[in-house]
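Annex B.
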Amino acid sequence: MINITQNQLQKLYEVDDYLWLEETIKLLKTKDLDNLDLYNLIEELESLGRSELNKVRSLLRQIMIHILLLEYWNQEYEHNFRHWQGEIIAFRDDLNHSLTTTLKNKLSQEIEDIYQVALKLVDKKTGLSLKQFPNNCPYSLEQLLDDSWYPEK
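DUF29 domain-containing protein: predicted structure tokens.
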């Protein structure tokens, strides 16, 4: 086994980040902490955390959009409600399989911001007046995640 130095690992990160990842994992498994490229490792972990948060935010926003469509877009309801319900099922499944306790807490804190973006998207998609929607998110996170909950029509 060839020992890679911290300096070599830092250079490797610039040219082949996947090989860098493999080498970093080897170092971690062998507890060779002295040769770790901590700067880039921290950067990658932070990026991973942001990506996971962005993914669950996006899934929750999609759930909100489709629930708003179900509840408020009357002229398209008969033609699209099954499609919207199918989308909600898929997004809920993806979200429920991605959530950790920490990510769930983050979504709880950001639910209003996510709702406001969902409203803007529904407004653009439907042309419905924003006045007919609640100003604040009328749904709890538990409702949005619940496979059996849909808004009353």
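The mean pLDDT is 95. The CA atoms of residues 111 and 137 lie 7 Å apart. Further annotation is deferred to the next reporting cycle.
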